[in-house]
Design brief:
With 487 residues, this protein is α/β, with parallel strands linked by helices. The chain is built from 11 helices and 23 strands. An 8-stranded parallel β-barrel has the order 3-4-6-7-8-9-10-11, surrounded by 5 helices. Strands 12, 17, 20, 21 and 23 form a 5-stranded antiparallel beta sheet that branches. Strands 13-16-22-18-19 form a 5-stranded antiparallel beta sheet, with no helix packed on it. Strand 7, helix 6 and strand 8 form a beta-alpha-beta unit. The radius of gyration is 25 Å and the shape is globular. 43% of the residues are buried.
């Protein structure tokens, strides 16, 4: 039975070894098709009568590939929640469409024991309802609607419903794998869904359970995919698996000195399987986060790949990670645009560079010594925070050529409205009030257009961003980006 032919293209990563991007060319789906004729078909051809390989087939094969040239796989955390409600069918499809090979979802049982997708014990954050999932029937959950993004009581309600696991896994059947978070305690109910839907190959179980418990499950559930979660508390479990190790280990460390972060330990894992890291927030993989990676990938994703042997990364920034793995650039500045970080306001001190209504830096980030602008560190994103009405900041920008430009702010807030600001250029009068949208969480940053274009000449300019005194203000500013407007 011939194996699938795989063409691999190495992609250079700044500061690290090449990362392999898989360009798969299929002759036969392993374990599914009949023996091929002795004469090899042309590369790229699918033998007559053989089923065409799907993205899910490729993801399954890639996940089991732990060879030295195995590429880095991308996992969309709770689906692509930046484009659809977390744990929704739309978020699952968007995650795969944006390049993820695996989508992570969270599984809980309803009162009538139906597995559904929901991260929290309660439905309050992500839907327009209230109550514990375990106290609600499927019919009651069906009457609820999901909120946009990461939810929150001020997030808009959508037309998306809470999906059952069966609906979710069927949506992923040909698209990729599904990381079944929070499913271990209800693994038998989840397994029945995979069997009934013919999606055993799609579902990925995970746990920190004792090794004998894991072995018993795998021995009794043929074909189940499983990943073991390890940190310093249960690092010994790796040796307990003996030679029958799972195909991947999710490694969790909050300090680079942790034993599970040691090169020898990670090399041992990598020799027999994939090494999985989560980069959504600090503490999952120390400070190697999505936001750090967007500033400098060598300090985040690149370091995990190069120094910590990562071959799977779960992220809240699917498109940026895919961009990095294929081009080496995570968050590129558009051609002709100028970007300035929020904390890099102009020099000159109080009254000239900024006005802040309370003394000192109220944030936990690296503010300028002796100055009162509030700077926070949100999982690696260094931002201006504690925004309040009547405050203002001045920025210097060097415009590359004459033209019409619009200013965009990468901002975050769980509130609606989050606040308003006005722009003044080179000492001129402030423009119209620009509203900030609810992004559904303080750590969920979105680049928002001011829609207040200005004609600027080539050279140095000053932009003052002032907060309306009479408006509610509670948002965070990551950076400003001045972009040319197409004629």
């Amino acid at each position: 039975m011939p194996a699938s032919l795989i063409s691999r293209r190495a992609v250079a990563v700044p500061g690290g070894r090449p990362v392999t991007a898989l360009a798969t060319v299929v002759l036969c789906v392993t374990l599914l098709c009949a023996a091929a004729p002795a004469t090899a078909a042309p590369e790229g051809a699918v033998p007559h009568g053989a089923p065409a390989e799907t993205p899910a087939d490729r993801a399954h094969r890639d996940f089991l590939d732990h060879g030295p040239k195995a590429g880095v796989m991308t996992v969309a955390h709770r689906g692509q929640w930046r484009k659809a409600p977390e744990n929704s069918l739309a978020a699952i499809r968007a995650g795969f469409a944006d390049g993820a090979g695996i989508v992570e979802v969270d599984v809980r049982l309803t009162r009538d024991k139906v597995p559904v997708l929901m991260h929290d014990e309660r439905v309050d954050r992500t839907t327009n309802g209230t109550g514990r999932v375990a106290d609600l029937t499927l019919a009651q959950l069906r009457g609820l609607r999901l909120r946009v993004g990461l939810g929150g009581r001020q997030a808009a309600v959508t037309g998306e419903r809470v999906p059952t696991l069966a609906e979710a896994i069927l949506a992923a059947r040909t698209l990729g794998l599904v990381n079944l978070d929070r499913a271990w305690q209800d693994r038998e109910a989840v397994w029945r869904v995979l069997q009934e839907t013919g999606t055993v190959r799609n579902g990925l179980f995970k746990s920190r359970a004792p090794v004998p418990e894991v072995r018993a499950f795998l021995d009794g559930h043929r074909g189940a995919l499983y990943m073991h979660v390890v940190d310093d508390a249960n690092a010994v479990s790796v040796a307990e698996f003996g030679t029958a190790r799972p195909p991947a280990f999710e490694v969790v460390f909050d300090d680079v000195r942790d034993k599970v972060a040691a090169p020898a330990f990670l090399q041992e894992l990598r020799a027999t399987g994939r090494v999985w890291f989560n980069t959504m927030r600090e503490g999952y993989a120390a400070r190697f986060t999505d936001e750090t990676s967007l500033i400098d990938p060598a300090r985040g994703w690149g370091a995990l790949i190069t120094h910590y042997r990562a071959t799977v990364i779960q992220t809240d920034n699917v498109e940026a990670l895919r961009s990095y793995l294929t081009t080496g650039v995570a968050d590129p500045v558009p051609p002709g645009a100028v970007r300035v970080q929020g904390e890099d306001y102009a020099p000159g001190g109080r009254g000239r560079a900024y006005h802040d209504i309370d003394p000192g830096n109220r944030g936990d980030g690296p503010g300028r010594p002796g100055e009162d602008v509030d700077i926070c560190d949100h999982d690696g994103a260094v931002v201006v925070c504690w925004m309040r009405g009547s405050e203002w900041l001045t920025y210097g920008v060097d415009v590359p050529k004459d033209g019409r430009y619009t200013l965009k702010a990468r901002a975050s807030s769980p509130y609606a409205p989050a606040g308003t600001y006005r722009l003044a250029y080179d000492g001129g009068p402030p423009g119209r009030a620009v509203p900030l949208a609810n992004t559904t969480a303080h750590h969920a940053f979105v680049l928002q257009d001011s829609r207040d274009p200005r004609q600027l000449t080539r050279g140095h300019h000053h932009i003052r961003l002032s907060l309306d005194a009479g408006a509610f203000q509670n948002w965070n500013l990551d950076y400003l980006q001045l972009e040319p407007v197409a004629p």
